[in-house]
Amino acid sequence: MEIKVLRNEGKELVLEFETFDTTIPELLAKTMLKDKDVEFAGVSDEHVETIGRKLTLKTNRKKPKDVLDKAIDELENEISSIKSSLK
Prior knowledge:
The chain is an alpha+beta fold. The chain has a single domain, classed as Gyrase A, domain 2 (2-Layer Sandwich). 37% of the residues lie in helices and 32% in strands. It contains two helices and four strands. The protein has helices spanning 23-32, 64-85; strands spanning 3-9, 12-17, 38-45, 53-59. A four-stranded antiparallel β-sheet has the order 1-2-4-3, with helices on one face. A hairpin with a 2-residue loop joins β1 and β2. The longest helix is centred in the C-terminal third of the chain and has 22 residues, at 64-85. The model has no long low-confidence stretch (mean pLDDT 94).
């Protein structure tokens, strides 16, 4: 899956995921919303039959990339935990 940075200015980050599936962008948005500094995190698309899902993140003080990195780390840890419990 290809990911394009559409906007990375100030406290706003917009990524486009080249996919029909919203699972990963939605997981990221939900995880980022746990951060008290996140003003908005959500996923949008033009139409369900078109490729490209946009993840928008707006923060108050933190750099959006730092919040995104933290969310990715959290999801990696959760997936690793699930994987080890199935062994």
